[in-house]
Give the backbone structure.
Amino acid sequence: MRTNYESPFSTRYASKEMQYLFSADFKFKTWRRLWVALAKAEKELGLDITDEQIAELEAHKDDINYEVAEAREKEVRHDVMSHVYAYGVQCPKAQGIIHLGATSCYVGDNTDIVTMREAMKVVKRKLLNVISLLSDFALKYKDMPALAYTHLQPAQLTTVGKRATLWINELLMDLEEVEYRLDNFRLLGSKGTTGTQASFVELFDGDSQKIKKLDQIIASSMGFDKVVPVSGQTYSRKVDAQVLNTLGGIAQSTSKFANDLRILQNFKEMEEPFEAHQIGSSAMPYKRNPMRSERICALARYVMVDTLNPAFTAATQWFERTLDDSANKRISVAEGFLAVDSILNIMINVCDGLVVYPKVIEQRVMRELPFMATENIMMSAVKKGGNRQQLHEKLRVHALAAAKRVKEEGLENDMIDRVCADPAFQITKEELAGVLKPIHYVGRSVEQTEEFIRDVIGPILEKNKDILGEKVQLSV
């Protein structure tokens, strides 16, 4: 029997891959990697640290003695010093040089940056897979006419594929933000208690060049080419706010997609995948609810609201730091990534199995097309000698009468019959059939879709082809 609270991100939504990045094991192993990096850098710059001590640290960087650390923390109430102690138990020769000159934020903040960078790489990979799937979909349906809407009212025609490019374009904007964040993550380095590196001034006898080199060596060993140039004790909490804003952008785009799909499913034009034994409703066996799209919207709403957490934290840090960031950021940042990971998992699953109903789409187009084709009908009649102003008025009257018939009487649109019966237009049903070909009313939708996928998306997918083709099997 489960008697403790369990996060739905762990039990229902987020991938094991993303969960591990925010796990205690990943955190504490990264702490040890940072301690090894610090010791190596200090040795390289002349401090009295031996190869034997470094080898001892390396040998135990992954086999963490958690029971020792946990017991020690009960005594000292300090997680970093408990793990320094536990590492020292395993590395008695190196015990005295572990964490030399550093503060808790050396391991805490640098690990947070490492974690966010690794998590953002996962987000990028999954985002690219969604874009790839939607690009295939867009090309497949590039020339299938469909109703386009303004104010959720039929306006003109587009194509199913062109509409998909709108979803892709917003995800592309998110991808650009993700790549910018990945390119600009900076390690904090080792800045000391208030960011002045005073402890290292003491260790290196005031040699500023060695102190600056220390940061560079540590950053390089952790896979970074940039270090925070100035800081208080911590890296600026604006970094967390910027990262969450990037995740919030993905939430916006995916929620937009999912809302559109929910409406299209109501129109019976498109559907998310529906498995053979899936139950849509406990009370109504016939229902096929868009539950995956609804879940995307629900999780996206959570992320968009979550972006406020690090924003407030950044705004309320006093001088060189306060500790009201810690409890908030360990929840808000982790859950922001876990939620977006969950969203992208669903997006991959949905976009890999989108269902289109061409007959319904065509039927709905043809109900509205006579209204949209009025200018073409009028020009055809003018060519036969008709008066444009008189024809315009007649079309207005016929359109209103046909609309009334559809809306108030629930009957089919008889606009075409009315026009053909009006001698002022001198047009037959056969001639009108030539005018009423939906593909004539989609503008440059087909070309726009081809150009966008070929010229904009294609090169991006080609560059990242090795990570495409990901499949996701949802647990619920």
Summary: The mean pLDDT is 93.
